[in-house]
Structures are given as structure tokens and as C-alpha cells.
Amino acid sequence: MPVEFLGIAATNDGSETTARSGAAFDKEYTLRLAGAHEEHGWDRVLFAYGSGSPDPAPAAAYVASRLDRLQILLAHRPNVSYPTFAAKTFATLDQISGGRLAVHFITGGNDHEQGREGDVLGKDERYARTREYIRIVKKIWTTHGAFDHEGEHYRFHDFVSDVFPVQQPRPNVSFGGSSPAAYAAGGAEADIYCLWGEPLEQTAQQIEAVRAAARAAGRTEAPRIQVAFRPIIAPTEELAWEKAHRTVGAIKQRRRAGTVQRHRNGVSEAAAPQNTGSQRLIAIAEAGERYDRALWTPTAAATGGAGNSNALVGTPETVAQALLDYYDLGVDILSARGYDLLGDAVDFGRYVIPLVREEVAKRDAARETAAREGAAREGAGQDAVRRTRPEAGSPGQTLTAVRG
């Protein structure tokens, strides 16, 4: 099973620990960061979405037109455009990128943030809308004749697109969430299901929930699984943990100063998060700071469970082995984003990604060898059965016939 790495395509150099140095959309930095990912072994980068943030679609088009290999994961909220318009936008971007696009559909976990752009639906209604939206986009991508749609949230007639994706039959659809409604929607519609980094036991439970939802939807193949972390690496364990504690200190200092956006939603940090994923991260952090080989929760606690916020702390070797533990659970897309966006992308690409890829190649080779040996043993067993089987008309067959 191949492994892939997803990074972040930030449009400025700000993070939870550092204020940005320029405009919200710094195109030189955006290209430099994406280029660093391409140069250092990453497979794709995520263009995230926020109500007041730069529009990710033209930013993605800008990067795609200037880089040759890096793939793009474009985040999109269904409430911000009609699905007919969005499907054409995505198809055009897939053309610009030469077939390097995947789309991550965001249902929205916070009523306040959704309301900033006029979305007044409740959470369950948003999930139903997202499922309908994804189905429409998929149909537009793959239908060359005009069609009508009469659904709960969208209605249109005689629509036909004149622009189609390069990828056939269509680009991949990505989806995330940790609630039963999310599992049901993503299990039914997603090619890739995205989770935030949790301890191995809880991650295994979530993977099974996604697979069960896919089976319930009648799918024969479950979505691929992606899990996201915040790696904190250094040459020694001691230095890595010193760096981790400095990182949490910087996060807390910025939050006390009120200089960091909270959940991209402007909600008071004292307010409990509405989305199940953040609630889970907070509960895990309250239960303990360290889990498994390298998972560390104070970064999540310091941000109030804001998005991808649990860290993996250690040397490159330790973090690589921790990622392989998730790979062994069935996770084949590993998402990572440091706090120094550019520097950490380079270091992770240089020192962690090659270790993981090497070990995955060994695992794949071992599985292939075991499969060949198993097939050989099975074939030898069948030959032995054929050699001992009575010939037609033999005494054995005559005796069987007489007994009958």
C-alpha cells in the first residue's frame, strides 16, 4: 500500500506561534512554501478555507501554473457557491494543474463561522446538504449531456457543463469529521476520509466507524484514510521536547495577547467547541499528555482543540516510527504541518519522509513475498490433491458408485 504526504499551502507565514510578516495573501511566500514541499518529497498540499481568508481556488491555480508535480487539495464549503458553479471551477483548476486536483468538502463545525457567510442551517442539515452537493458535483464531472436535479437543497434544469476534469473518471473527493453524521456522509461519498491525530486506539475506532458507514451505504471499497499531525522534531529527544515546550509557551503567549485567530471563527476561547472533532481532542488532552510512541496533546489543549493540533514529538526516527504505527492501522495519507511552516516543511521532507517511505517499501516487499509464497504453497497443495485423486473408472470410483 503506497503512502502519501500532505502538507499545507499557507498564503502567508503566520502560525499559532508567529504573527505573519506581511499581507494575508503573500504570493511570493505562497509559491516559495509550495515549492519547498515539491522539492522535498511531499505529494500534495492543502489550500484551506476560512470565511475571511484569501480565496483558495485562485491561490491554488497560481501555484499549479508554476509548479510541475505537486498535487493540490482544495478545501471548499458548499454554502459559498452553487454546485454547478463549483463543479466548473474545480474542472477548470484540474485542467490548469494537468490533473493534480482533489477537493476537500467542508460541512462546517461552527455555527458562528458558517453564519459569517450567510449559512443559517443547523449541523445535521449541513451534512445532508453536503452529501447532495457532492453527488451533484460528481455527476457534473462525469455527465456530458444536460440533466435536471430536484433535491432537498438544490434545484436546476437542463444543465450541461462544457469543461471537464483531466482526471478520469473524476478527481478524488475528500471529507472529514468525527461525528456519526460525518461518518455516514463521508463513508457514503468520500474517496479519502480525513481524521485529526488521536491516539492509536481511538484512531482505529474511527477507521472502523468510517468503514462501517461505507458498508452501510452499500460500498464495496471503503475510503482511504488520512490522519493529520503537528510534528515537532529535533536531532535529539531532549532537544525535541525542549522545542515542544517552547512551542506551547509561544501558543499560550499569543492567545493571551489576543493575536491569534481562534478556530477561524472569532469565538471566545472560553467557549466550548461545537464540533465533535475538537471536543474529542480536548477530552483526550484532559485524560493525558502523552500517548503511544510520540503523541503529545498540550498543543491541542493550548489551542482549545483547534483543528489539526496534536503533536508528534521526537527525533526524525521517533516521529517516523510513530507515523508507521498509524500506517499499520490502515492510514495511507499522512498530513503534517509544523509551526515554522517553511522551515518545518523542509526538515520534515528531508529527515522524516524518506524514513517512512523506506520502511513502507520494506513492508510492501515483505507482503508481496508472503503472498507469492502463499500462492506457491496453495499451488503445491492442489497438485498433491490432483496426484492422489482417483482416475475415472478406478476402483475407488466403482466402490463409491456401488455404495451409492
Task: Write a structural description.
The protein is α/β, with parallel strands linked by helices. Helix content is 49%, strand content 16%. It has 14 helices and 13 strands. Helix 1 packs parallel to helix 12 and helix 6 packs across helix 7 (200-216). The chain is globular. The relative contact order is 0.12. The model is unreliable at 262-270 and 392-404 (pLDDT under 50).
Proportion in helices: 40-55%
Distance between the termini: 51 Å
Largest sheet: 8 strands, parallel, barrel
- Residues in β-strands, percent: 15-25%
Shape by Cα distribution:
globular
Helix run count = 14
> What is the H/E order?
EHEHEHEHHEEEHEHEHHEEHEHEHHH
Q: If strands are numbered along the chain, what order do they take across the biggest sheet?
A: 1-2-3-4-7-8-9-13
**Radius of gyration of CA atoms, rounded to a whole number:** 25 Å
The secondary structure category is alpha/beta
| Integer average pLDDT | 91
**What is the number of beta strands?**
13
Low-confidence stretches: 262-270, 392-404
